[in-house]
Structure formats: C-alpha cells, structure tokens
Amino acid sequence: MARTIIENIVIEQYKDQSYFTFCKYTTIRFFEILYFEKGSGVIRINGKIVSYTPNSIFVFVPDDIYIVEADTASTVTTIKFLKSFFRGDVSQNANLPVNDWFRKIEGVLNSESHQLREMQFENNSDKSHLTSLINMVATENEKKQSFDIFIIQNSLSVILHLIARNIQFLNADMTTKVVESSKIQQIINYIHTNIYNSDVLSTKSLADEFHMADNYISEYFKKHTDVSLKKYILNYKLKLVETRLKYTDLQFSEIAMELGFTDSSHLNKTFQTYKGVTIGAYKASLS
C-alpha cells in the first residue's frame, strides 16, 4: 500500500507477489530505490534486461523506464522521491535536510557508467546496513498512525548516504583515455565527494592527500585522463550546475554560493564561456 508520510516521498511494500503496478509513478518520479527482499525474475530497464535475486537493490533516476517480470513470488520495497520533492516550498518538508539529500542523489544522476542501475557495494556490511534500514522504513511505514517520523527521516538520510558512497563516479562523457589506474579513480572519487569544499580541492591539498608532489599531481592526472586537474573540477561543477537548474528551483545565487563561485554573475560568465549559453537561457530551455 502506497503512503506519503513525508510529502512527495512514496513508500510501498509488496509481499509475495508476482505482478507489480508500482511503475505507475514513472512520469512523476525523480529518484527511486527498489529492494527485492525475496524472489527472482528480471527487470527490463530502458530496453535492457537484468536479473534480480534476493537482496538485489536498484536505483532509478528521472526518465528511467522499467518493468518487473517476476519468475517467483517476490517481496519488494520501493522508496520514491517524486520530482516535486526537490522543488518549491513544501511546509511539511521545511525541517528536512532536502538539499543534503539532493547532494547524495546527484552522485547517481551524474554516474553515466551506471547503466543498469543495480547497486554494487564495496563491502557486504554496507549492503547489510542498507537492507536493514530499508526494512526499518517499510516497517515504520506500515504502522499507520503509530509510525515514528524521526526514525523514517534519519533512516532515509543514512540510506542515501550509503548509496552515494557506493556509487562509482566515472563519467562516460568525459573525454579521457581508458582509466586504468586505481589512484586516478581514487582522486576522481575524492573530487566528487568534496566538490562543495573548495579548500581541499586545491592542487596542494590534493597532492598532500594522495602523497604526491604539487607539480606532479596535475601532470599525473592529465596523463591518465587527457583533462587538466583544474578543468576537470570546473567541468564537474558545471555539470552539477546543470543538474540543479534541471531538477531544483534554487536561485542562481544559491547555486553559485554552493559550488564556490563568487556570485551569480561569476557563475553565469563561467557557464556561458564553457557551455555557450547563459544559465538563464539554459533554465528557460528546460521548460
């Protein structure tokens, strides 16, 4: 049974079923977590097919289209953030860390290499923690009037954090050579994780973090990616600007402040230089 305990977040659980109707939210879904506690079958995702088994976890982003075809009776929990959750001023959600949640989700939005949306984990403990938290949210959701909103909110925060840190941040549209070095991947992941903290992304700070000489880390990064370190950081920031313009109603000045630009004018000039269009024109084109 679908419920929206938090406005514009839909929580559903289906037990021992072979047919599912939860895809009806596709047109208004922004981000979705799908957890198969038991059962087996396939999911057709954007024209491709991937199998699911017990404890499979998938994430879906805007415009993903999927259909679940169960081979055996399946128990599924789904948590959907609808598009309107990150837009406008919903009084019920005023005390939620909405922007922090968006920052975690955007890692998935910008992970072009994550084509089939099935979660992979660095270790089994992360997966175990995530499934336990999803079950906790589903259990609280079923309690009707006795649910504990504090548990649900905090569980959702940790769920999104666990998903964010297990998403690999390789961007397929980045003009690079094949990345073979795990050190490069570590640097890229570190940049993405700390993109809102400019102080730790200076050449010196990055060199210290990865035990490399200041003048060598830039050379090393460009050698393996064909992109300079500074340009990669700027390109990723501009990608996040696009994501915010597309999916949120943040003011340009708010976006500029978040991503370390001097002001909205500085952001606009930089965006126009690299994207060929002003942020206002880009925003207008989305509608």
List the defining traits of the structure above.
three-stranded antiparallel β-sheet; 287 residues; four-stranded antiparallel β-sheet; Arc Repressor Mutant, subunit A; 2 domains; alpha+beta; Jelly Rolls; single chain; 17% strand
Your description of this structure?
The chain has helices spanning 98-109, 124-142, 149-166, 182-193, 203-209, 214-225, 229-247, 252-258, 264-275, 279-286; strands at residues 9-17, 29-38, 41-45, 48-52, 56-60, 66-70, 74-82. It has 287 residues and is an alpha+beta fold. It has 2 domains: 9-166, Jelly Rolls (Sandwich); 182-286, Orthogonal Bundle (Arc Repressor Mutant, subunit A). The longest helix has 19 residues, at 124-142.
What's the level 1 CATH class of the largest domain? Answer: Mainly Beta
Helical coverage, percent range: 40-55%
Could you give the order of strands across the largest sheet? 1-7-2-5
- CATH architecture tag of the largest domain: Sandwich
Please indicate the count of domains: 2
General form? globular
CA-CA gap between termini: 33 Å
Helices and strands, in order, run as: EEEEEEEHHHHHHHHHH
Please identify which CATH superfamily of the largest domain we are dealing with.
Regulatory protein AraC
Radius of gyration: 20 Å
* Number of helices in the DSSP assignment: 10
β-strand number: 7
Summarize the structure.
The protein is of the alpha+beta class. The chain contains ten helices and seven strands. 44% of the residues lie in helices and 17% in strands.
